């Protein structure tokens, strides 16, 4: 009898134990499920944010994995301690420089080498977003006609760029040209002067290895050095005036914020992830379809897409068809142009990139946005290269004068051909007339049609009229 009671007691205890374990398991499963749901929700939100950024931004490391290219030009970063000196407008900035907030003054202001003026002329912008307060600036070194420069600034002002730093040379530096340019709102103009030369001479860049390879070389190398030194001056002013982004492009280039619904550089740059310092815009090279182009911004709509924006296999498949008898896939450069956050330590890294004296910046390529390069789109562009430099024709001398292969080819051809023969050469090497080939390249994504700049420029011309002095290229 006692044994049966003991067995029943043990069974009761065992049942209680089993029930307790089961209850504990249920509690643990519920807690685990809640944790998993919370973690899944967090991961999904994180992945959603990453996907949203990935739609527009392609980090450099990802590009290396997805679109490796033999044409990639790496920016080198040389680490040096920043110069310890306070900087004011007109001096080079360092980490100790005073950064002044606010926008440009409305009254005219000038320095020994710069001029700025306000204007009653206003242009509508297409922003209307939460990024309206973002201050974007463009710097450039130019010898183009004032009419072309003004159209170029009007186009970018419509995209939300409100600050322009112009270093003028040649016809752009004539008194009448400067007077027209300084009347444009938000512009700062530097004319050639001893003061400007002195300011360039104070640049830290002279002591840096990254620019040293271009010193003591003529022609295109001289321009490259001037552009880099001018960028340093513009950076100092941008820091002092509290601007947010610095873009450096030429007057034959237009920013194209592809994928941005407002067509606004403010909105585009305002959405850049805060950890990204520099944004690289792939260059799209304009392709003239006739040798009679006079106004490239309005007449050329066909563009050769950069290999960063196309499938590598397709790029390699059509490489020879696109290159033809030319030295490279692109007639000119292939490594894009950049925008950089204006921060202490910012410096130029040549005309195409930015770096920083204090750190190695984080760089990303824009997945859709590009810079449209209207290079050699008119036969006048070819004629303008004739006699621009005085170089010997041997290979070593040509490399010292010209950075780009096609520029060397043109220089030699002008010595061998008359103007009629050169026009034939231009049609063979630059003009795209083969309708079948163009259709194939468009269908495979290597070429694209972009009409918006044409439409915008038409609107600008209807508003302001044809530019006085024409739109011819630099001279």
TrEMBL record:
BP term (GO), one: response to abscisic acid
Transmembrane segments: 12-34
Keyword field contains Transmembrane: yes
Presence of the UniProt keyword Membrane in the record: yes
Keywords: Membrane, Transmembrane, Transmembrane helix
Protein name as annotated: Glycosyltransferase family 92 protein
Organism field: Micromonas pusilla (Picoplanktonic green alga)
Lineage: Eukaryota, Viridiplantae, Chlorophyta, Mamiellophyceae, Mamiellales
């Amino acid at each position: 009898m006692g044994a049966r009671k003991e067995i029943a007691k043990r069974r009761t205890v065992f049942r209680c134990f089993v029930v307790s374990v089961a209850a504990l398991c249920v509690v643990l499963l519920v807690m685990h499920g809640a944790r998993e749901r919370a973690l899944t929700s967090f991961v999904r939100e994180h992945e959603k944010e990453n996907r949203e950024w990935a739609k527009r931004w392609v980090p450099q490391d990802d590009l290396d994995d997805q679109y490796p290219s033999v044409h990639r030009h790496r920016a080198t970063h040389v680490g040096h301690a920043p110069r310890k000196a306070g900087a004011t407008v007109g001096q080079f900035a360092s980490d100790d420089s005073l950064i002044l907030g606010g926008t440009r003054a409305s009254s005219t202001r000038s320095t020994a080498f710069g001029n700025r003026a306000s204007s009653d002329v206003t242009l509508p912008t297409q922003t209307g977003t939460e990024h309206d307060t973002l201050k974007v600036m463009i710097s450039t070194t130019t010898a183009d006609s004032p009419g072309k420069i003004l159209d170029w600034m009007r186009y970018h002002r419509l995209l939300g760029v409100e600050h322009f730093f112009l270093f003028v040379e040649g016809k752009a530096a004539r008194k009448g040209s400067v007077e027209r340019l300084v009347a444009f709102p938000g512009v700062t103009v530097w004319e050639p002067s001893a003061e400007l030369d002195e300011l360039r001479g104070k640049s830290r860049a002279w002591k840096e290895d990254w620019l040293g390879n271009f010193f003591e070389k003529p022609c295109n190398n001289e321009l490259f050095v001037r552009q880099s030194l001018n960028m340093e001056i513009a950076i100092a002013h941008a820091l002092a005036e509290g601007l947010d982004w610095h873009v450096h492009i030429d007057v034959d280039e237009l920013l194209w914020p592809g994928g941005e619904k407002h067509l606004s550089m403010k909105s585009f740059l305002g959405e850049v992830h805060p950890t990204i310092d520099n944004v690289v815009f792939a260059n799209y090279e304009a392709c003239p379809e006739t040798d009679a182009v006079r106004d490239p911004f309005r007449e050329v709509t066909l563009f050769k897409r950069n290999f960063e924006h196309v499938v590598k296999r397709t790029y390699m498949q059509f490489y020879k068809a696109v290159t033809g008898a030319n030295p490279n896939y692109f007639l000119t450069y292939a490594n894009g142009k950049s925008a950089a956050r204006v921060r202490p330590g910012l410096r130029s890294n040549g005309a195409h990139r930015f770096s920083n004296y204090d750190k190695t910046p984080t760089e990303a390529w824009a997945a859709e946005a590009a810079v449209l390069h209207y290079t050699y789109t008119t036969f006048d562009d070819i004629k303008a290269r004739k006699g621009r430099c005085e170089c010997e024709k041997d290979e070593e001398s040509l490399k010292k004068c010209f950075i780009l292969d096609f520029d060397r080819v043109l220089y030699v051809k002008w010595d061998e051909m008359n103007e009629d023969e050169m026009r034939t050469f231009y049609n063979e090497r630059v003009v795209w007339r083969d309708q079948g080939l163009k259709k194939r390249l468009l269908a495979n994504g290597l070429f694209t049609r972009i009409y918006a700049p044409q439409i915008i420029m038409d609107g600008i011309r209807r508003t302001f009229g044809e530019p006085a002095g024409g739109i011819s290229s630099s001279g």
